[in-house]
Amino acid sequence: FMQRGLDSQTKKQLEEEEKKIISEEHWYLDVPDLKEKESCIIEERSFLRCEDLVYGRMSFKGFNPEIEKLMIQMNSKCKEEEIEEDDKMEADVSDEEMARRYETLVGTIGKKFLRKRDQRVLKDDDEDEDDEEGSSNTRPSKRAKKMFLKPQD
Amino acid sequence: GPRPAGGGAYWVDSQQKRYVPVKGDHVIGIVTVKAGDVFRLDVGGSEPASLSYLAFEGATKRNRPNVQVGDLVYGQFVVANKDMEPEMVCIDSSGKSSGMGVIGQDGFLFKVSLGLIRKLLAPKCEIIQELSQLYPFEMVLGMNGRIWVKAKTVQQTLIIVNILEACEYMTAEQRKQALAKLSGN
Known about the structure:
The structure holds two protein chains of two kinds. Chain A has a domain of 30 residues. In chain A, 56% of the residues lie in helices and 3% in strands. By secondary structure, chain B is an alpha+beta fold. Chain B is built from four helices and eleven strands; from the N terminus they run βββββββββααββαα. The interface between A and B is medium-sized, with 26 and 32 residues.
């Protein structure tokens, strides 16, 4: 057991000697440590951030009108210029058609939900206007529906 | 050389032909593989980019976009770093396509250096302004050095392609002369 201890001691001595030799060989600077400056350099792979780039899809002289609209939209986002054209999207239905539809549509659907008394009042009004046929057509069909149909034997 | 920008940033200019995918860049990709739910696009980088079929405006599991192998797609990167395969989408953050998606039939795709793309994408680019006076045409610029052009006739398309390619080394004077000859025709 003494041998083991001796071994460890000799090992330690050897290690210490080695360290001395090595440390003498190490070079070190006498200069005081420099403070690390915060690097102001950020590595950026693309020039996307650097420059104000235009949108990549373009069309000229009316070749592709959708893209031309897009160009105006995209480029105005970047530059914040006022858009001279109207902001309205092209409606599928023109304003006039919309107004016509509304006139007739709202009226007829509205009638559906009125109570009986109001319906009679409306009917009187309608007879004065041109909607006679419409209202008179609905009357008999409603009555027909309401009446019970006897099953044929 | 280094140039100042509005935000106080400087950058170093260098001529480069090989594209490296970057998040947010809009590029033109070519569909090479249609693998189930995902497309593989060649974007000119070191590896192909992936594009999910759901990354199109109005796409659902039942309503799949009409994309075939060999189609050209204009999209932007959402993932692009050196550790992962790049991923692309054809919608922006609000879910709208805003010009991205499959690029239509016909037209001509060609490659230029990245420096020229940057010139062309600069606001109020002279080349673009001059070309736009020539014929009606449409063009898609990919940051990966790819440009797609389509004009009414094949001849017009090729003329525009040749001018753009030549802009690499032509001076402004030479370019204006060439365009003057063409518009005289």
